Every structure is written in structure tokens, then in C-alpha cells.
Amino acid sequence: xxxxxxxxxxxxxxxxxxxxxxxxxxxxxxxxxxxxxxxxxxxxxxxxxxxxxxxxxxxxxxxxxxxxxxxxxxxxxxxxxxxxxxxxxxxxxxxxxxxxxxxxxxxxxxxxxxxxxxxxxxxxxxxxxxxxxxxxxxxxxxxxxxxxxxxxxxxxxxxxxxxxxxxxxxxxxxxxxxxxxxxxxxxxxxxxxxxxxxxxxxxxxxxxxxxxxxxxxxxxxxxxxxxxxxxxxxxxxxxxxxxxxxxxxxxxxxxxxxxxxxxxxxxxxxxxxxxxxxxxxxxxxxxxxxxxxxxxxxxxxxxxxxxxxxxx
Length: 312
Prior knowledge:
Layout: E1 2-10, E2 24-30, E3 32-38, H1 42-46, E4 58-60, H2 66-69, H3 72-81, E5 88-92, H4 96-107, E6 115-119, E7 126-130, E8 134-140, E9 148-154, H5 163-169, H6 173-180, E10 185-187, E11 190-192, E12 206-210, H7 220-223, E13 228-232, H8 240-246, H9 251-261, E14 265-269, H10 279-286, E15 292-294, E16 300-302, H11 303-307
Parallel strand pairs: 3-4, 4-5, 5-6, 12-13, 13-14, 14-15
Antiparallel strand pairs: 1-2, 1-16, 2-3, 7-8, 8-9, 9-12, 10-11
Helix pairs in contact: 9-10
């Protein structure tokens, strides 16, 4: 079971060079699995990264540029070949419905499962999914075309139990569930406080996905105090004019946004193919924010540990 993890599938911009691929990543929260963006070839890289196609519950598309969506039709077709029957929810900007329906129609693609497509035009953060444990929100980014960011966040602090105390008192499954809700335990007529069995609670963790976007302080309220921020750093600082013209950010822009949002950790990505070496990008972002890491394809990050400043 995955608690709250991020797996980078693609960290590059338009061209797949230098061992990098178009944008895609996976968020897993316990048994829930969400694919964010689906650039060309995404499905081929999911299995080596330990992600099973049929485990995907939801797909979130930021915008309709090819390096974020060209892999989606192929993945959907493969799900039919794998025998998927469960509904697949897909969220994206205006046009995502027409894009998929035209491909399905012109190619006579057979889909064996229900598709629930949602077109989003948020002007401020809006909840698009929630359950007892976490919620997903969408918010506007500032690219050349309609583009949405996504925020996944815990609804409650994470509670873990002291295994030695569970064994000592031989708690039943029902008692463990009760303790996690903060209820005391009746142990042979003696009331044992729930705190006896609980570790210190870990504060709620949140993750924001911001790609593609130019630097714009209107973004700050949507990602304020997020635990871990993924922000595009397509160009180095000497390409600031090009970044502005193309609706992208520089490494310095990403660092400034991390500082303004008061995040705990910045993950940079969406690197231009002009850069074989990413280390200079990281260094430029670090001029504005101290805790910056490179998006490494195939790597799974524990978001709770990143939120605490632990890179594992």
C-alpha cells in the first residue's frame, strides 16, 4: 500500500532528449492512483516505474499541448486490451472532451469501460474530488492556452500506532480502528487512553502540480503553504524573455514561486531539451529557495518525508 507518494514518469518539455520524456507523473494516496498529464510514451514507462495501468483511478490533464496529452489515446486503448471494466474519470481544460471523442471516432477505437470526462475552467481553486482521507483541487495556471494546476492534500493529520503497545495489549481490529479515531480502549474493565497507542500525529501534507505556467503572483494564493511544490523550470535565467513569450518559467521564477508560496520543498521539471545538464537549473532556483530537487524519472518520492525536508 502506498501512503502518499509521487512517481515522476516524464520530466522533459517538448522533445524527448537526454534520457528525459514528456510530462507525466503519478500520485498514489493509499489505494488511490492518479495519473497527472500523459505525454507521448507514458504507458511504456509506467510499468518500469512500478505503476500498473489498470490501477489508475483518475487522469488529470493540465492542458492540450502535445507533450502533455499525446500519450492519452494510446493508454486508453491499452486499458481496453487489458480488459478494464471500471469507470475512468478524466479531468482537463476545455477541449479535452472533443479531443478524445474525435480520436475515438476517427480511429474507431473500442473502449470497454465507461469514461467520465470533465472540462474545467477554474478561476480559483475548486474541489474536483474528495473522500474521507484526501481531496483534489484544480486551479488556474498562466500559460499560452487554457491550463490547469492540481493540488492533492490530506484532509486530516496522519495517525500511526505504536506496534509494541498494540502487541502488549493485544488490540483487536475493532479497537485499533477506534483508537485511530481517538477513542479510548476498555481493557479488562480499565480504560486506557488512546494516546497510549499513538505516535505523534504528522500534519496534513499537500502537493501542487504547476506545469506549464509563466511566473505570475496570482498563482500564490492557490498554492500557499503547500508542503511540496512541483513547478516547471523550462529555461535558465538568461532565457527570461523567451520564457515570458512562450508562457513558461525560468529556474529563478520557480525558486521565487517556492519562496512566495512558503512551500517546504520545490521539485523542478519540464526541462527544455537544450539542457543536457540540469544541475545549473537547480543552482539558479536555489538562489531564491534553499530546498530544491530535480525531478528524476522513474523515482518514487515519499511526499511526507519531502515535507519534512527528508529526500527519500
